[in-house]
Write a structure and sequence with these properties.
This protein is mainly α. 79% of the residues lie in helices and 3% in strands.
Length: 124
């Protein structure tokens, strides 16, 4: 991402949201359905809630920040007729928040996986 221009940042943010956001949550939901319905295990909803909030918040924040950075850099290049170096300086403040959002999303996915692995069998 460091070498990419504003258009790359915007496109990545635009494509990641449906792929990771929608596709990822659909995958997790189907796994949860199998765990609860067919395997008969009970999830710890507190752990899963923490994981979902971290995952959703990280994905949403990261994608929105990528989009905002791409639009800001594109505005600097196209409308203000700035150089590529100026556009890179517009993008650079977004690197740390996007990295933190990405780490939160990865940690949330890990918490969700742990919650699914730690699901206990229901007592019948």
């Amino acid at each position: 991402m460091v070498g990419g221009g504003p258009g790359t940042w915007f496109l990545v943010g635009y494509l990641l949201y449906p792929i990771v956001g929608v596709g990822g949550f659909a995958s997790i939901s189907s796994l949860l359905f199998v765990i609860e319905t067919y395997e008969g295990r009970c999830l710890n909803y507190g752990i899963m809630l923490i994981g979902f909030v971290m995952l959703y918040g990280g994905v949403l924040a990261g994608c929105v920040l990528l989009g905002i950075a791409g639009v800001s850099g594109g505005y600097a290049i196209i409308v203000q007729n700035s150089t590529v170096n100026v556009a890179q300086s517009v993008l650079s403040p977004y690197v740390a928040p996007i990295s933190i959002a990405s780490l939160a999303a990865v940690a949330g996915a890990g918490v969700c996986i742990y919650g699914m692995a730690a699901a206990k069998a229901t007592e019948t």
